[in-house]
Hints:
By secondary structure, the protein is of the alpha+beta class. Helix content is 39%, strand content 18%. The chain has helices at residues 2-20, 33-65, 83-108, 227-238, 247-258, 261-264, 298-311, 325-336; strands at residues 125-130, 133-139, 146-150, 152-156, 161-167, 172-175, 183-185, 191-195, 201-207, 219-225, 288-289, 294-295. The strands form 3 sheets. The chain has a 5-stranded mixed beta sheet, with no helix packed on it. It is elongated, with a radius of gyration of 27 Å. The model has no long low-confidence stretch (mean pLDDT 85).
Amino acid sequence: MIRRITLATVAGTALAALAGCATSRSTLSPAGPAAGSISWLEWSVLIVFLVISFIMWLLLLWAATRKRGSLATHEPWNIGGGQSWILIGGFAIPFLVLSAFFLLSTVSLKSFPVHDGDSMHHPEIRVIGHQWWWEIQYLGHPEDRQFTTANEIHIPVGRPVDIELTTADVIHSFWVPRLHGKVDLIPGTRNYIHVQANAPGNYTGQCGEYCGEQHAHMLLLVVAQPEKDYQEWYAQQLNPAAMPTTAEALHGRDVFMGAACSLCHQIRGTEAHGFVAPDLTHIASRQNIAANSYANNTANLEAWVTHAQSLKPGAEMPNLAAFNGTDLRDLVAFLQQLK
């Protein structure tokens, strides 16, 4: 019976641990060197915890099942003894384990760079946190190699990318678990981070610091691409917005420019020069909308344009229910050709 209980406990713990490794934002499934350093520390803590827990359960089972005499045969409570068990189990072993993990933690801190006065003076990307979306500025040199996008960061595979982190309002936290640990975006301060992906793919991130009503929907997507694909994407992003090629898209552009949209959003190559909301120059090339809360498709675009508050209550994007019928259809057609 004891053996069965022990095996069931170990199996259940192992299944729970493996289930936690299967998510797209698991810190136990690293895809970059920084996340690998942190993951190694987490695995060490997890394994030691499981070993200690297993030993403690065995001791509890032994204490619960061993034969006991009557109370009359027990030694008096004040006879003394047992202090060595307290010293070893209650002080020495915890001190050694915690000291070892403290040292390992300091080693993992190498994954978090500080401003060294050299490379960090010229980061490749600047990320600005807003309630509740991410402004992404690519800081290429010269200035005609610079552009701004939102919520979706593209990086080349196999090399570190220096990113500067700041915020336009409250404290946020940049966290892409499979690539790096959390780094805060603090008002009045600039933090820095090296991000590297070892393999192509999409890596989902999240604001890791509570920042208000829609904190849970302040998602981030890092797209790691081979160098050639990344350079092609970069060149495409430098271009101004594509000109409408259909009557519907032309009418949709007029709808966009004649409404409040152009006062908040920027579309390079047009008269829309707003800077308080995400840049929409190449919105159709992004995988998601509303800070990666919804897939970038026709239904979600129509819903977001007309009833944003029902999708993200409290967001700065107001409901624009005046858009309907032909105007709404053509406005979405215009947005979908901005690639």
